[in-house]
Each structure stands twice: as C-alpha cells, then as structure tokens.
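thought: user wants a sequence for this fold. calling inverse folding tool.
action: design(structure=
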C-alpha cells in the first residue's frame, strides 16, 4: 500500500530581481528532486517556493519587534516542516546575502535538526563558488541540518552550458544534487542504502564498540 501523504519540498530563494537567476536555480533544483522522487516512489510531491524579496519588510520588522507577520510565520513553518529544503542565495560581498541570513536568523537553531538540505548560490563570476563551503555549509551545520554532499554554484556563464550528463556542467550538478536530496528525503544514504531501523532523519547508524569487538572475535 503506497503512502498517501505528499512529500513536501521547500525552496528558499533570496534573489532580489524579477526574474531572478537565483529563483531559476531554486526551481530547477526542486524539479530535479521531484523527478528523482517520482522515479523511486509512487507518492505525490508538493513544492513550495519562498521568495524572500516579498518578505523583506516583514523580516526586518520581526528582527526589531520579535513578532512575525502572518506571511512570515507561514514561511518559517513551511521551512521547519518540510521533508526536504533547498536554500539558494545570490553572492553579496563574497558571502550569502543579508536578506538570506536574516531569514535564517529567525529560525530556532534546533528547528532544522536532521533536515536534508541542498545549498546553492548564484553569482556573476565563478571566483565566488567557495561561498558554498566557507559560508553556507557552516551556517546549516550550526542549524543542525544535514547538507547533501553536492552543492550547486551557478555563475553567469554556467547558464549556457549543455545538459550532457557526462560533463560537470550546471545541468549535471543540478541533477546530482537533486538525486542526493531525494535519497536523503527517503531516508537513504546518498549511495542508496537504507537507514538503520529506528533512527531519526540525520542520525547515523553507530555500532557500539562492544559489538565491534564481538564481531572481530567471530571472524
């Protein structure tokens, strides 16, 4: 019997322009994740995209007053209740944008514990690609989320790359990141192995030292 509860993917886009390459990257990552989920499990997938530019004033007011608007509360709840999260920011001054950081500052530091996350960023030059490792990955490590191994950076020239699956172009990286997020949402390791029974999302199977010794004696 197939599960009927839809899986919920939430993509947070901190792009400021409209249309935005940041939003485009968020949409493509969400589509790649949904495609992989659909291929592996007969289950509906809901995608909700949060445009932070529409919540900028509410975010600033909340930082000052401590009280979120109804729309901002809805966005925070969507992020914390998602089965999988996609977080995309433009690069400003060699880091994530202030709007992006301000939004995640409003989320309780334990609310994303164990949640699978793809981190991604957009910028005008490939020189800023390390922002994913020196800024975004530490941020989500602090929030106790589980970031998948593949992060995606899209420079301006990347949007013209081909979709050849045998290259490391942008389409290939998007597909790989989407596949890793799908595996994490389904409770598998990136390699496709199932989690040990009884473990919460984000928990690794740890074999007690005594059991390891016993196994060695049996060899």
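)
observation: tool returned 219 residues.
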């Amino acid at each position: 019997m197939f599960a009927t509860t839809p899986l919920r993917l939430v993509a947070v886009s901190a792009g400021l322009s409209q249309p935005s390459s940041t939003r485009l990257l968020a949409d493509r990552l969400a589509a790649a994740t949904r495609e992989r989920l659909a291929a592996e499990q007969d289950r509906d997938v809901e995608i909700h995209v949060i445009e932070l530019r529409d919540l900028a004033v509410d975010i600033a007011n909340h930082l000052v007053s401590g009280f979120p608007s109804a729309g901002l509360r809805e966005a925070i709840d969507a992020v914390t209740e998602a089965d999988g999260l996609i977080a995309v920011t433009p690069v400003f001054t060699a880091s994530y944008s202030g709007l992006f950081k301000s939004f995640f500052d409003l989320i309780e530091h334990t609310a994303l514990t164990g949640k699978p996350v793809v981190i991604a960023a957009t910028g005008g030059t490939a020189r800023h690609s390390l922002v994913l490792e020196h800024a975004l990955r530490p941020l989500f490590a602090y929030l106790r989320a589980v970031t998948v191994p593949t992060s995606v950076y899209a420079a301006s020239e990347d949007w013209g790359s081909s979709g050849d699956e045998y290259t490391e172009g942008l389409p290939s990286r998007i597909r790989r990141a989407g596949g890793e997020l799908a595996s994490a949402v389904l409770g598998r390791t990136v390699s496709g192995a199932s989690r040990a029974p009884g473990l919460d999302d984000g928990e690794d199977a740890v074999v007690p030292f005594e059991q390891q010794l016993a196994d060695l004696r049996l060899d």
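thought: summarizing for user.
answer: Here is the designed sequence. Strands lie at 7-13, 45-51, 84-92, 95-96, 116-123, 146-147, 152-155.
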